Amino acid sequence: MGIALAVIAAIVVLLVILVIVKAVRIVQQGFVGVVTRFGEFKEIRQPGLTFIVPIIENLRAVDVRETPRTGDRQQVITRDNVAVIVNATIFSQVVDVRLALFTNSDYLVSVDNLARTSLRAVFGSISLDDAFSQREKIGTLLQTQMEEATDKW
């Protein structure tokens, strides 16, 4: 009887330790933690030590820092039908974590695709001479188009 009780006690202690290890999480600086309970959004946790209910809740870290991504070389056609190859660097930042995660299947891919589409649209509306002489205007137009499209997520 004593050995059986010791085995049961050891199993209980191991289970308690396992639950504690699974419950304690750390959200790194520059990230926020999104807690979902049974797949449904529950809350956002700030950087630092946090606790979740194992099995029931899940914590996903989302980078909220400004992130630069260099796009691939892309061929675009200007208004005067001249093909130009451009490289663009995209700076993006998640502002509303809940919208980014739950209204878009993959916000990073969406930002990249939107940048490509916006780049083609802007270059298609200007001539080759304007493309060389008005880089700041192109940047402003791209930023405006990107912000309008990404406001909903």
How would you characterize this protein structure?
Helix 3 (107-124) packs across helix 5 (135-150). This protein folds into 2 domains: 2-63, no CATH class; 67-150, Tetrahydropterin Synthase, Chain A. The protein has 153 residues and is of the alpha+beta class. It has helices at residues 2-23, 97-102, 107-124, 128-133, 135-150, and strands at residues 24-27, 31-37, 40-45, 48-51, 57-63, 67-70, 74-77, 83-86, 89-92. Strands 3-2-5 form a 3-stranded antiparallel beta sheet. The protein has a two-stranded antiparallel sheet with strand order 1-4. It contains 5 helices and 9 strands, in the order H-E-E-E-E-E-E-E-E-E-H-H-H-H.
Which descriptors apply to this entry?
153 residues, alpha+beta, Tetrahydropterin Synthase, Chain A, two-stranded antiparallel sheet, 5 helices, rod-shaped
